[in-house]
Amino acid sequence: MTDTDDQHEQPEHHGHHPHVPHRHHDFDEHESVPVGVPAIALVGLTKSFGDLEVLKGIDLEIEPGEVVCVIGPSGSGKSTLLRCVNRLEEPTAGQVLIEGVDITDPHTDLDAMRTRIGMVFQSFNLFGHLSVRDNLCIAQRKVLKRHKHAAEAKAEEVLARVGLSEKIDEYPARLSGGQQQRVAIARALAMDPDMMLFDEATSALDPELVGEVLAVMRSLAESGMTMMVVTHEMHFARRVADRVVFMDGGFIVEQGPPDAVLGDPQHERTQRFLRQVNER
Ligand SMILES: Nc1ncnc2c1ncn2[C@@H]1O[C@H](COP(=O)(O)OP(=O)(O)OP(=O)(O)O)[C@@H](O)[C@H]1O
Ligand SMILES: [Mg+2]
Fold first, then answer.
1. CA of 169 to the centre of ligand 1 (A)
2. HEC states along the chain?
3. Which end of the chain, N or C, is surrounded by fewer C-beta atoms within 10 Å?
4. Which residues in the chain come in under a pLDDT of 50?
5. What is the C-alpha separation between 231 and 247, in angstroms, rounded?
6. Which pLDDT value is given to residue 27?
7. What is the pLDDT of residue 32?
């Protein structure tokens, strides 16, 4: 492991950050994370696309095991926020700390960091020419360098977790959308992530298939997984989230326990959004 601590000072404008020890390790040793360090910490995060400022200074900490649902109108920056967390988007300014490690630091090993963060999108992006088993093994083999037997054992384990053991030799085209999305969740879990990001994982599904995917997400939440979930499913947010974050216009407008934010929102914009959602 390279120890470059003495070459890097915490940027002065964020040096006060209370929970974040001064760590600049790579992620490859999968060491235990010190107690009290947030799973995810966003500090003054901004993101612009050209002249369009999409994230306008987001401060957010997510504790290990916490389930945070992010809600807000279309275009408010929810997907951009999630994509900055594993640096699919490059933040314009601010910091993203994953388990205390600043991933905006050019010395951070991004590939190793990304294996700690599972991501599930609206589109499942399974490989159509590969069986479910091979879809679940390919990244384990290539990225984690797991041996065939270890990868297959893990594939069986995670497929059981999403309730699809009997589909291991099936091809994606012969699965329903809900089943494909559950395989996509299993594929992310096969990498033994420390946290999972979901971006409208059920939005592309026929209504009757939404429930089975939400049930898998719920059991994952109950197992203690750290989760950041962008969703339009208010019932899910209400029942499963530890915290709901309402975004609008690139800001966090309001956040708190689901009963407070969804049941008794304090801000006019939150109230208006929830009225619109409920009228749909
Ligand atoms: N790659 C990009 N280039 C330019 N503009 C972008 C890009 N990605 C997102 N945007 C813009 O950033 C804003 C926020 O987009 P984002 O996808 O984060 O919103 P969202 O809250 O996820 O919306 P939705 O609920 O519709 O998914 C939008 O105005 C969008 O057009
Ligand atoms: Mg989005």
1. 37
2. CCCCHHHCCCCHHHCCCCCCCCECCCCCCCCCCCCCCCCEEEEEEEEEECCEEEEEEEEEEECCCCEEEEECCCCCCHHHHHHHHCCCCCCCEEEEEECCEECCCCCCCHHHHHCCEEEECCCCCCCCCCCHHHHHHHHHHHCCCCCHHHHHHHHHHHHHHCCCHHHCCCCHHHCCHHHHHHHHHHHHHCCCCCEEEEECCCCCCCHHHHHHHHHHHHHHHHCCCEEEEECCCHHHHHHHCCEEEEEECCEEEEEECHHHHHHCCCCHHHHHHHHHHHHC
3. C
4. 1-25, 28-29
5. 12
6. 54
7. 65
Token pair 């708190």 in the structure block, residue:
256
Task: Say yes or no: CB of residue 250 within 6 Å of ligand 1.
Answer: no
Rounded Cα gap, residues 20 and 34, in angstroms: 10
b/e code 210-244 from CB counts within 10 Å (16+ = b): bebbbebbeebbeeebbbbbbbebbebbbebbebb
Closest to 223 measured CA to CA, from 157, 145, 166: 157
pLDDT of residue 239: 96
Instruction: Determine the pLDDT at residue 30.
Output: 53
Q: Residue 229 has what pLDDT?
A: 98
**Spacing, Cα 83 to ligand 2 middle (Å):** 10
